[in-house]
Amino acid sequence: MGKLLKVISKEDILPKYRGTAVEKLLKYHNLRMEYEKHDNAELLIGMCMDNRKQLQIPNNFAYILRTGGGNLRNSEFKVSYAIAIGGVKTIALIGHDNCGMVHLESKREKFIEGLVENAGWSRTQAEEHFRSFAPMFEIENEINFLLSETRRLREKYPKILIAPLFYKIDDNLLYQVEDDVQQP
């Protein structure tokens, strides 16, 4: 579980994603498929806020939530809104390599010093802020976290297709992440 599957042709797309918005996402981004016109979002994309990642997708194709590590735990109302009001039936969760949320505790001192220097916080404020929030965002391993978040959201939204994808910074491609959970 967790094997990355490269998509460089339409035949590389897993059968479970064919005919879905995930297939379109992979074709738009990796295969540079010509953009179709979209009047409504077809999926929700949850991905990291990292500035090194830019998706190649047309306007109106997707709702996009960007959070540290692609962690949607504190964004569930927004996810629910996209499903209930926006009518999306698919979520693409996109993790990536070299994520800043991995081993966040090792960045503690730099984080605190950065808030003191750049934001004008006292050291005590910065330490308390890190202590309060870092545990919620700490990721030990990008792929393991991506798969655990996928499982969590599948339990919460059982009728929604949820696809774990992985963005490699060095080639700017989306990879499918092999997982063993059946979807609707």
Please outline what is shown here:
The chain is α/β, with parallel strands linked by helices and 184 residues long. It is built from five helices and six strands, in the order βαββαβαααββ.
- State the strand order across the main sheet: 1-6-5-4-2-3
Rounded average pLDDT:
94
The amount of beta strand, in percent, is 15-25%
CATH architecture of the largest domain: 3-Layer(aba) Sandwich
Number of separate helices = 5
Low-confidence stretches: none
The share of residues in helices is: 25-40%
Structural class: alpha/beta
- Can you tell me the CATH topology of the largest domain? Beta-carbonic Anhydrase, Chain A
Biggest β-sheet, characterized? 6 strands, mixed
Number of domains: 2
Give an overview in words:
This protein has 184 residues and is α/β, with parallel strands linked by helices. The chain folds into 2 domains: 4-101 and 140-177, Beta-carbonic Anhydrase, Chain A (3-Layer(aba) Sandwich), CATH 3.40.1050; 103-138, no CATH class. It is built from 5 helices and 6 strands; from the N terminus they run E-H-E-E-H-E-H-H-H-E-E. The protein has helices at residues 21-29, 76-84, 108-119, 123-137, 142-156; strands at 4-6, 43-48, 62-67, 90-96, 161-168, 173-177. The model has no long low-confidence stretch (mean pLDDT 94).
